[in-house]
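Sequence, please.
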C-alpha cells in the first residue's frame, strides 16, 4: 500500500507543471463555454430578425364527421347435432395415478402404432 502512495506522490511531484497546465486549460475552457452560453448565444434586443415573407396559418375548421359504421348482419350458423355429455360416473377422475396410467397407455399405443407401420 505504501508503495502505491509513494508512486502517486512521485508522479504528482514529477508532473506538477503538466497538472497545473491542465487545470488552467480546464478553467479557460469553462470560462469560454460560459461566455458563449450567456453572451454570444443570446441575441441582442437591438436587432430584429429578418422576415422574408409572412407565413399564412391554415384556417381551423371543425373536423368532418364520418358516417357511423355498423356491424354487418350476422349469418345464422348451421345447426349442429346435439351432443350429450356422458353420465358423471363415467367421466374419469384426473388423479396423479390416472395421469401416470394415461401416459403409460399412450406410450403403449405409440409403440403399437410404430410397430404396425413396419
Amino acid at each position: 500500500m505504501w508503495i502505491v502512495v509513494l508512486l502517486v506522490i512521485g508522479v504528482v511531484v514529477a508532473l506538477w507543471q503538466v497538472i497545473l497546465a491542465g487545470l488552467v486549460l480546464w478553467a479557460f475552457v469553462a470560462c469560454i463555454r460560459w461566455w458563449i452560453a450567456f453572451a454570444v448565444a443570446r441575441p441582442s434586443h437591438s436587432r430584429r430578425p429578418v422576415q422574408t415573407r409572412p407565413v399564412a396559418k391554415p384556417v381551423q375548421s371543425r373536423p368532418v364527421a364520418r358516417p357511423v359504421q355498423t356491424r354487418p348482419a350476422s349469418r345464422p350458423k348451421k345447426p349442429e347435432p346435439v351432443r350429450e355429455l356422458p353420465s358423471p360416473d363415467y367421466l374419469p377422475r384426473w388423479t396423479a395415478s390416472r395421469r401416470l396410467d394415461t401416459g403409460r397407455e399412450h406410450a403403449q399405443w405409440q409403440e403399437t402404432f410404430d410397430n404396425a407401420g413396419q
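The longest helix spans residues 16-40.
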